[in-house]
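Per reviewer request, we include the raw input and output of the structure prediction for the construct analysed in the revised manuscript.
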Amino acid sequence: MRRILIVNSKGGCGKTTLATTLAAAFAARGERVFLADADRQRSSLGWLKRRPQGLPVIHGLDWSKGEHDMPSFSHGFVFIDGPGGLRGEKAKELVAEADDIVVPLMPSAFDWDATAAFLKRLAEMKRIRKGKAEILVVANRVRRSRADQLLLQQQAQESGYPLLTEIADRVIYARHAASGTCVFDPPAAPADVLAQWHPLIQALD
């Protein structure tokens, strides 16, 4: 199975929104999908409990207590909602489970130092250095302002990682979080909303 870790050492960057949306997007294509929640708040599993019957199935895994039981299927996807403040041995354990590491980046000068340090620590891990896992940086909660765009360009240049895509800051994501749904569930969100996710989905295929 392909294992995708969504993580940042900085809380409040939208990890759970990315994890749940990606899980639902791949489930909508008919893939076998698991959503592993490694955060003590268990927000992803809470979202999954609210998910209406009749929508594409997503299987939940509770990793919040440190146990990382991995499904034995040869095909499918496991999306791992990593904990905030991730560092040390816990970080190494989760990275060791991952084929791809999605790092949400917010256009905030206050958050940037923590994210930059986290990316540096990731790059030094053995699994990353050996090319066994790829780091994908995604700009999240982006507003339509020139200031945000300039800050994102600066952050991408300093990090050494290109921004794969930009996910806009929209009220629709809060609504979906409350109902256990996502923008890919019927009725699907407008095309311009979905288009922002396509580069990330293609990179994980």
